[in-house]
Amino acid sequence: MQIDWFTFIAELINFLVLMLLLKRFLYGPIIKAMDRRERKITASLLEATEKTQEAQREADLYRQQQQELKDQREAMSTQAKAEVEVFRLDLIKSAHAEVDATQAKWYTAIKQEKDSFMQSLHQQIGQQIGTTLRRALADLANADLEHCIIEVFIDRIQKLDADQREVLCRSLTHSGEVVVYSAFDIPETARQRIDKVVGQIANDIDLRFETASEPICGIELKADSYKLSWSLESYLATLEESLSTVLDEEVGEKGGLGAPSGDKGQRGAGGQGRKSLI
Fold first, then answer.
1. All residues at 6 or more sequence positions from 126 whose CB lies less than 8 Å from its CB, including other chains
2. Which member of 203, 204, 217, 226 has the lowest number of beta carbons within 10 Å of its beta carbon?
3. SS3 state at 134
4. Which phi and psi angles does 188 have, rounded to 5°?
5. How far apart are CA 75 and CA 211, in angstroms?
6. Paired residues of 229 in beta bridges
7. pTM
8. What's the distance, Cα to Cα, between the start and end of the chain in Å?
9. Rounded distance, CA 219 to CA 39, Å?
10. Which helix (DSSP H) or strand (DSSP E) does residue 40 occupy?
11. pLDDT tens-digit readout, 123-154
12. Which residues of the chain have pLDDT under 50?
């Protein structure tokens, strides 16, 4: 078979021209359009990615702000509770202080009232007992009360033991003034007897005799810080303590600390724990 080189070259040229025309008018625009489309899609993807990241950042910021608000709310709530608790404790403390102050005033008022009552009662009892004893001893012993008191007082001095005599002797020796107090006027003969008994304990002692409202129905010798006496005071003290105990129990039964607003409650609160009032 013989090749027609002219035809072959012409067809080759036509093919090359066709390829050039296709590349120029068909493949080129298509490729450019595809490139533009790819760049556009890539730009859209990049923009979407940036928006997604920005949205994620905003979401994280929102969650952070929410957490901060929650923390602040909890902190404020805790602080408010602490302030309320402090305020409550301050109110309780203030109320307790006010109650204690009021209670102290009640105690003071009741104590003063009770002291005044017991002192008055003590004086009245002393006067009544003194009068009764004078009459009773005068009738039973055929002697007046003063004579009996003097005899008892002298007997008490004579029956002092060695230690008591030594203490009395030192007090009489060092005392600048030795006074015998009595609730009545001591006769001269009785004064001489007392002076003689005291002189047996310490020599050269000048006794001075005075009458006084105390001791009640008794005689008292005072020398320096030493005191020797016999009177109804000791018996009245025992009676006073018994009366005070009975009064405390009686008042405590009728009213106590649980009823501070009433008079009985005040008396009950003020009377507890007291042994003696005078």
1. 216, 217, 232, 236
2. 204
3. helix
4. -65, -40
5. 82
6. 220
7. 0.38
8. 164
9. 133
10. helix 28-141
11. 677 667 656 655 654 454 444 677 888 888 88
12. 137-138, 140-143, 255-278
